[in-house]
Design goal:
The chain is α/β, with parallel strands linked by helices and 119 residues long. It has helices spanning 14-24, 72-81, and strands spanning 8-11, 28-29, 38-43, 46-52, 64-68, 93-94, 99-105, 111-117.
């Protein structure tokens, strides 16, 4: 039985990734160990891991994660209040597949898409 998934995304700079996810998106560091070239963060019931890839070209990065939420409007508003850039091609909108979604790019251009099922 599968119970969880923890995606691993590339990062060029651990300090920049940590700062973005913690200070801008509200994640927390998982544990107290500081692993060289590796970072584990969580928020609510999700966890994302990052591996160091210093040679990553952000414009060639295809890392993507789809994250479901139960308060997409509130989360979206909180990001706008903090002036977090939303992907210009993916503002909050209802999709024909029954989801309300928006996306953003992290400092390494990993695409984070957040979605909530329409009722």
């Amino acid at each position: 039985m599968l119970t969880e998934i923890h995606p691993k995304l590339p990062m060029r700079n651990k300090a920049i990734t940590r700062e973005y996810y913690i200070n801008k998106l509200g994640f927390q560091e998982n544990g107290t160990e500081d692993y060289e070239g590796y970072l584990m963060l969580y928020k609510d019931k999700i966890e994302i891991h990052f591996f160091e890839f210093k040679a990553l070209d952000p414009k060639e990065n295809y890392g993507q994660v789809y994250i479901r939420t139960d308060d997409i409007d509130g989360f979206y508003r909180s990001l706008l209040d903090k002036k977090i850039p939303i992907h210009p091609n993916a503002p909050l909108q209802e999709k024909p597949w029954g989801m309300k979604e928006f996306s953003l790019l992290d400092p390494d251009h990993n695409l984070l898409t957040f979605g909530q099922e329409l009722e």
